[in-house]
Amino acid sequence: MKVMKTLYKLAIVSVLFCAISCSDKLTEANIDPNVVDPATGNPNMIMPTVLATAATDYLLKGWNEPAGIVQHIQHDSWNSGINHYDWTPQDWTNYYGMLRNNNYLLTSPNAYPFHEGVALTMKAFIFGMITDLWGDAPYTDALKGDEGLFEPVFDTQETIYRGILADLQAASDIFATGDNSGYLAGYDVYYGGDPAKWQRFANSLILRYAMRISEKLPDVAKAEIERVAASGIYIKTPADDAVITYVGTQTSNAWPIEAPWTGDSPFSNFRRRKPGQKLIDQLLSTQDPRLAVWWSPVQVQWVADPTLGRYMDDAIYRNDERLSVVTLPDAEFEQAIAAGNKFTRRFNPNLKGANDPELNTDLYVGLPAGLVSPDSYNGNPDAGQDKPNQHVSLMSHLYRNHSDPELMKSRIISSAEVSFILAEAALKGWSVNGSAESHYLDGIRNSLITWKQEGAYADFVTREGVAFNSATALQQIITQKWIASWTGAVEAWMDFRRTGWPDLKPGPASAQPVLPVRFIYGSAEQLANSANIAEAIKRLEQNQYSNQPNSQWSKPWIIQGTGKPW
């Protein structure tokens, strides 16, 4: 569903929820007017806060550390966390904060079955993020501070994933009744109060988490996936993806890092994020139509010139006219390129010295993973923190100028992801109403529709590396799912962790020669719940790359004994 609303209303709703009671009137002088009384509050008013906060967090996670792991992006400055995985402990306070808000939907005496179904779905999704990213976590004893339980036991991942599947099934059963009584129009920023679409969402999350546990609990995973597939009730088209849309009229409702092109300062975050070369190589190898949607060509392309008297020219060319400068300000480049000018810079490959950099002459150029000095990559003449690099691609104007609001979304789960899950299930021999190839092709089609490239589908799926090949089917499925998870990198990380695909390697500046598999438990939890977190850390599998027990390279239960991803 296209939701072109959300964040203006969300800000107002959040204030209202915190500032007023939904009672008709206040009759007692000692009632705090700034706190909602759970006995009388309207659960609709917390719903958009829960939904939008969860969706925005998912987008931000898919745009930060996980995106660096799966090499969707790299940073050319302030890069250690994204490029090198030099992580510090990360607290999960915001997730449990979301769960506390969500718990009001679940336990409010004024909630209707629809609210309960929404709350169960979001509870499953948020706990899914916690256990996916960290491992074992407080679950059964969580959210019981009002009962005096301030040091909750950490449940095992197995317990949490089983609980997630149970909650999602309970939610699906509620939505199956079609009852949305008690819902106030405008407060469901995902699906507008439509129980049928919520049931498809809940069932699609069942598919996600069932596949997540498929190596550890294959019988459970098979039964869950076959049951949902047999029902036919899951997200099948991009129109039913679980999304919120960013309207982009000001900072508070804009897509992260988006800013108007008013000069250099607002674009520091925009310039810092560059495509990972691994992603660019994949997109170029198949002439993927999504390439130009997500990324811009380099501002200045390298061109070989054997007549040049040095390895790299100290000037750039505009339409083959040599200028007296080696670079221009970003704004000047953009204005000239928009007017149809082409900029190049020349080099003589025959004069390359031992210390001279290799140059990438492609029109689209990314940053290889984990470089020591990513800001100087590809002969950047103006290297330095927060400086542009004319020889490496930037994100497209979609993200620079909010040129297409329909594409500016946080996508929690998509029809493309669901199709690729069913393709993998079919490859395992499970009954999912279709072959691995048919679901694989549906996944590609749905992703192309999402990014308005459906017209390229017929030709694209015949290309080498894209056309279905039973001998390399799992690699193809996960690779195309990795591409389709752009801006949703958490899922790509979980797939890599589970399957080892795509074949991702850390770069030379990484602290370890393998990629991380989890977040480090946060300092706040270690201080406040030390005994229980110590037991959870003992259950992590240590290995030659674990530089400490609570390490990003210590394996959680979900991949222990699988030999994956390394």
From TrEMBL:
UniProt entry tagged with the keyword Signal: yes
Gene3D superfamilies: 1.25.40.390
UniProt entry keywords in alphabetical sequence: Signal
Record keyword Methyltransferase present: no
Classification via InterPro entries: SusD-like_2, TPR-like_helical_dom_sf
Signal peptide: 1-24
Pfam families: SusD-like_2
Coiled-coil boundaries: none
Name of protein: Starch-binding associating with outer membrane
Organism of origin: Parapedobacter defluvii
